[in-house]
Amino acid sequence: MAEVKIRDLTKSYGAVQVVHGVNVDIEDGQFVVLVGPSGCGKSTLLRMIAGLEGISGGTISIGDRVVNNLPPAQRDIAMVFQNYALYPHKTVGANMGFPLKMARMDKAEIDARVKRAADILGLQPYLDRFPRALSGGQRQRVAMGRAIVRDPQVFLFDEPLSNLDAKLRVQMRSEIRELHQRLGTTTVYVTHDQIEAMTMADRIVVMRDGRISQIGAPLELYDRPANTFVAGFIGSPSMNLIDGAVSQGRFAAPGIDLPLPEALPAALRPAEGTRLTYGIRPEHLTIADQGQPASVVVVEPTGAEIHLVVRAGQQELTVVLRERQSFHPGQTVHLAPVPGLIHLFDQTGARIA
Ligand SMILES: Nc1ncnc2c1ncn2[C@@H]1O[C@H](COP(=O)(O)OP(=O)(O)O)[C@@H](O)[C@H]1O
Ligand SMILES: [Mg+2]
Questions:
Q1: CA 199/CA 184 separation, integer angstroms
Q2: Model confidence over 101-129: pLDDT tens digits?
Q3: For the chain, what is the domain count?
């Protein structure tokens, strides 16, 4: 096991810079998820850690070695990809043992390691099968087995569940977490799916356009997003974000009048006229007897919850309700934010502490 340290890391393809000075410390044994929209540089960052992409600037250390110039095979990492990349003409056992065979490990040791990985992953009954005779979930397990047998210092995963259907994804999510709890190996896991990030990570690194937007534990990001990007990215349905200004001690936008957080210390209280973005999560808006009037646009019962899309002023807002109530489009409701759960951001999008 090992810690991974990334310092001032940059990457350019020709004249185009795609990673702009990234700094992350990943502690020994931690499960860290890199999350962000498609194209933000997650795979590039992971592939630089793996040694599959060159580094344009900065350093990467694994354990106490700077690995910038080490080839992938000498970095003591194992990577699991989205497309399992199994050899179709090799059995499950041979697929799992292949990296060890390439490293010229002796056969008895290979067999022992394959058996151990197969036990961990529940693959014993399938060791003699070919990949074509496996389900998608089983294939992904074989790909993980091939990483486990190497007993690496660090596991790197690049969107390993994207090819699976929704139900299997949820199951494999907890399998990978369980595996991590069992092996305790430092893991860097890339996904574009914030739910995967929230449910799996010890720490989340949110990336945007080749930069880190925020690093924190899942609930820290949910409770105190550092900016409007993280606020909108983490949480589902997304946080409602409304642009407006302070007016007479309240928040105002066309057709919208909402209370400001009460607990804000006087020094942080934005002055009259200050332009702000007001953030309130759908689950933190309640239907009240009085408050911000809004007109119901769409009613979506999910079973456990009711999702309402409502129009207030020029803004569409989402409200999530846990109690069963009936609503109909066109109905007027009144919204009240839960005090203490209001987020304020300045004009640059940064959180006002
Ligand atoms: N080999 C390459 N040549 C040029 N541009 C690339 C190459 N690989 C990735 N990119 C660009 O780098 C950016 C980040 O890509 P990537 O790391 O794959 O994003 P993600 O994994 O977050 O979806 C994208 O804009 C992509 O087009
Ligand atoms: Mg990618």
A1: 17
A2: 998 999 999 999 999 999 988 999 999 99
A3: 2
